[in-house]
Amino acid sequence: MSNGFNTASSRGLACCHLCLKLVRQDSHLCPRCGTAVHQRKANSLERTLALIVTASLLYIPANLLPIMITTSLGEVTESTIIGGVLLLVDMGSIAIALVIFFASVVIPLTKMAVIYYLCWSVKRGRLGTARQRTLLYRMVEFIGKWSMIDVFVVAILVALINWSGLLMVRPGPAALAFAGVVILSMIAAESFDPRLMWDLEPPAEQPNKKPVERPVVKFVVKPDVKPGQEFESE
Amino acid sequence: MDQRHDFPGYLACQSCDSMFDVSRLRDGDTASCSRCGGFLTRYVADQFVQVVAIAIAALVLLALGCSYPFMTLNLNGLESGMTLPQVALSLIAHRMPLLSISVAAFIIVIPAVVLILVIALAGAIALERHFDWLRPVGRLIFTLQSWSMVEVFFLGVLVSLVKISGIAMVEMGFAFWAYAVFSFLFLLAVTGLDRAQCWHQIEQLSQHE
Ligand SMILES: [Zn+2]
Ligand SMILES: [Zn+2]
């Protein structure tokens, strides 16, 4: 784990995931916030894989079952996620159709594929640099919750369109399954520890390393420095 | 530099574990990792006072957003309206209690709890008072905050507007506007509370006890 690079673990320290305090590796509880300290997230790969496999399996009924059931003058129409997207295209709302398609199909599938890939990259070969894969991880972590849009849309339509006999919208079982997919893959992303990818990096890329690096500091509100300017202070 | 907000010496990057000396940040500085680009911390001298003010405003708007009509539909004279809690509650009537609880949690309950806790914690830090509950409250805030989906719900509202506009006339109620401003303020309050600085302050207060 320690490969000569300037990491907390190579200095015998562990970082509390909740309050960011650096503590000695043999501590069990963080002295500052009281949470359990692990040098790397506990059983990160196993937990992440178990969660993402469950999410992938749940994604199948989420797409096959109806997400919304509309009753109009006694006539019942069941629509799946894809059906809803196609209906929006028929209505001419291409932009909204794209939003739903992205949120419900592209984002969850991308997210699952990326998490599988990241787990594999820790175990096996490494395509791309650790920095690129960390960016991928951050992206996936950020976009995950946007998949919930379709579930919220269904909930809003159910609450709003409620004239029994005339026009009524009911939630379908896929709404619950899909919410499960989103929640499980959010927990999966949270369980993955990107530091595992960096632990595999070859030792010290730069020679003459100072004992502890200074971070990149962006001077955001200082008028005398150009915005976005980056430099190593000191 | 403001002595009370004197910053802790070292931080490790959450993505790549590299260690950094962040002791000499000035007001408004954002420090990020030079190895992987990850965010480390942002130093704002009077952040806790600002956060309390924003969080109180957000909480008031959420309360208003829950108690006034959110949207009203008009289909050839037939009216139908809903409030924010009804978005979650109407799912119970369709025997989907789990989904109902999740929706309520993501758009109302978690944001409200986070705001109340943020007001208490940032308020105590701003007043330099130590309480025994600071640690558990801090743990709850930083555990719960990634589970709020106010901005996602807001996009969902806009999408449903377009979906319905083909069927019926839609009118946005007062609560819609309250929730719109609330979601913006909520994000401001949550991102304004810097994790590393917040815990450093809690530690300092407990030591001065
Ligand atoms: Zn801690
Ligand atoms: Zn880093």
Structure commentary:
The complex is a heterodimer of chains A (234) and B (209). Chain A has two domains: 1-39, no CATH class; 43-200, Butyryl-CoA Dehydrogenase, subunit A, domain 3, CATH 1.20.140. In chain A, 48% of the residues lie in helices and 13% in strands. Chain A is built from seven helices and eight strands. Chain A has helices at 44-64, 81-91, 94-123, 130-143, 149-160, 173-191, 195-199; strands at residues 13-15, 22-24, 68-72, 75-79, 162-163, 167-171, 216-219, 230-232. In chain A, helix 1 (44-64) runs antiparallel to helix 3, helix 2 packs antiparallel against helix 3 and helix 3 packs across helix 6. Chain B has two domains: 1-45, no CATH class; 46-207. Helices cover 57% and strands 13% of the residues of chain B. Chain B has helices at residues 47-67, 84-93, 97-126, 134-144, 150-165, 174-192, 195-207, and strands at residues 10-12, 19-21, 29-32, 39-42, 71-75, 78-82, 169-172. In chain B, the strands form three sheets. A three-stranded antiparallel beta sheet of chain B has the order 6-5-7. In chain B, strands 1-2 form a two-stranded antiparallel sheet. In chain B, helix 2 packs antiparallel against helix 3 (97-126). Mean pLDDT of chain B is 90; it is low at 1-6. The chains are: A alpha+beta (234), B alpha+beta (209). The interface between A and B is large, with 75 and 74 residues. The complex binds zinc ion (2 copies). One zinc ion (ZN) is lined by residues 13, 15-16, 18, 33, 35-36, 38 of chain B.
